[in-house]
Write a structure and sequence with these properties.
The protein is of the alpha+beta class. The chain contains 15 helices and 18 strands. The strands form 4 sheets. Strands 1, 2, 3, 6, 7, 8, 15, 16 and 17 form a 9-stranded mixed beta sheet that branches. 43% of the residues are buried. The model has no long low-confidence stretch (mean pLDDT 96).
């Protein structure tokens, strides 16, 4: 079989694959700091040359920020667009690293060998699993199993300001039958996952203003309205006793999870007690009608992320604050409209305000959820392929957070995306001592080779 030779090549060439990854990891491509702009440029150049060595028509494309890398390789079968990002997070605080973040190395740990260094899991190690799978296929068969385009970004860790304009300007070139994204993780160390739904988010800061200055609580306590008290009342009213969000119309557009997907989730055997116990909690606090896994993947939420009012320094100050504020976020699912929710929340707050108080909602972002259509045959083909490589069958899962690129592929290019990754929860993304398991890198390459093998016949 064609795939057997490719898998054997991946196994035999693991050491050269690791050395290529190490070269890329040594480039400090921190996108948020202008001091590292030349290094981001160097990472893009490195990837262009590496893709050319496999036979891709690859080029570095300028943007107002860091460059994009775009590459194409002809082939029969469906057209796949693979996305990854070569930029990385800053390394601060540096003193918490056990080694130079840009001097990567293989380390032995109690849980096996890991690749240690900034960008190992997010996202250089992940994107190289796909490129190495293509390299092995080309080495064995002289071509690739289907038509493949590669699209690598250099600003993902700094908000992707150039991404949407670039996609719109190059929509015809970038549009394919389906996208593939390797910026996610396994469900557990033996169970691969294909994320098919990601929550959107509405976030902002609510500010309640009362008196025109801070007041002495001995003189004004009682007759003066305290904005902190008003804010506390509003926050307390955001959930009912069943854990449901009380903002009017909040659940408009929230879908039911299809039976086949719910069955896959149940088969995963998610340990809710262990999940909460790991952070010293014992009772789920979300909607009581839904399991913790459903609450994370398929239910919307409202959370308070920060509070500020009055004197918060050392010691004590008997003051009635003139202003109280809270940072509040809503995770969204299905077709929930973030703008409609923002308007409804603002009206709810204003309806609750007492005399002498005003409210201001400062929007910090509003993005809808992303839902992939698993009707595309590539989804089931990929699930079959991953199940062949890993001990447990792959599952279509949800994601509690947001990966904006998946939604952009849908809204800008009209494509669904397969979100397949091999990271683990303990990889330390964005943190000191980031790592990527050697098994994730090795089996990740094998997994992509299997996915391409299954998809080529569609």
């Amino acid at each position: 079989m064609m795939i057997d030779a490719v898998l054997a090549r991946i196994d035999a060439d693991l050491d050269p694959s690791l050395e290529r990854l190490m070269e890329l990891l040594r480039i400090p491509s921190i996108s948020t700091d202008p001091a590292y702009a030349e290094h981001c440029d160097a990472a893009a150049d490195w990837l262009v040359e590496d893709l050319k060595s496999i036979g891709f028509d690859a080029s570095k494309r300028p943007t107002p920020g860091h460059p994009m890398v775009v590459a194409h390789h002809d082939g029969d079968g469906p057209h796949i667009l693979f996305y990854g990002h070569y930029d990385v997070q800053p390394v601060d605080p540096l003193n918490l690293w056990h080694r130079d973040p840009f001097d990567p190395a293989i380390e032995d740990t109690p849980n096996g060998k890991v690749i240690r260094g900034r960008g190992t899991a997010d996202d250089k190690g992940q994107l190289m699993t796909f490129i190495e799978a293509c390299r092995a296929w080309k080495a064995e068969h002289g071509t690739l199993p289907c038509k493949i385009s590669v699209f690598l970004e250099g600003e993902e860790e700094s908000g992707s300001p150039s991404l949407i304009p670039f996609m719109k300007d190059n929509a015809e070139e970038l549009t394919a039958d389906i996208a593939m994204i390797c910026d996610t993780g396994l469900f557990d160390e033996n169970t691969p996952a294909i994320m098919t739904q990601l929550r959107g988010m509405l976030s902002g800061e609510l500010t309640i203003t009362g008196p025109d200055r801070d007041l002495h609580s001995g003189m004004y306590g009682g007759p003066a309205m305290n904005p902190a008290r008003v804010l506390a009342r509003i926050i307390a009213a955001l959930h009912d006793d069943e854990g449901r969000v009380t903002v009017p119309g909040f659940y408009d557009g929230v879908p039911e999870v299809p039976t086949q997907i719910k069955q896959q989730w149940e088969a995963l055997g998610f340990d809710a007690d262990g999940f909460l116990g790991a952070v010293s909690l014992s009772e789920p606090a979300g909607e009581k009608a839904f399991s913790p896994l459903e609450q994370i993947w398929s239910r919307p939420t409202c959370e308070v992320n920060g509070l500020n009012a009055g004197y918060t320094g050392e010691g004590f100050k008997t003051v009635l604050p003139s202003i109280a504020s809270a940072k509040i976020s809503f995770r969204l699912v299905g077709t929930q409209d973030p703008h409609a929710i923002s308007a409804s929340f603002t009206k709810m707050v204003n309806d609750m305000l007492p005399p002498d108080c005003t409210a201001e909602w400062t929007d910090h972002g509003a993005n809808p959820a992303s839902i992939m259509s698993i009707d595309h045959p590539a989804f089931e083909a990929a699930r079959t392929a991953l199940s062949q490589e890993w001990p447990n069958p792959a599952a279509f899962t949800g994601g509690g957070g947001s990966i904006p690129i998946a939604g952009h592929f849908k809204t800008v290019l009209g494509m669904d995306a397969l979100l397949i990754g091999f990271g683990k929860d303990d990889d330390g993304l964005h943190s000191p001592n980031e790592k990527y398991d050697l098994s994730s890198f090795h089996k990740g390459m094998r997994s992509w080779a299997r996915v391409l093998n299954e998809v080529r016949g569609l």
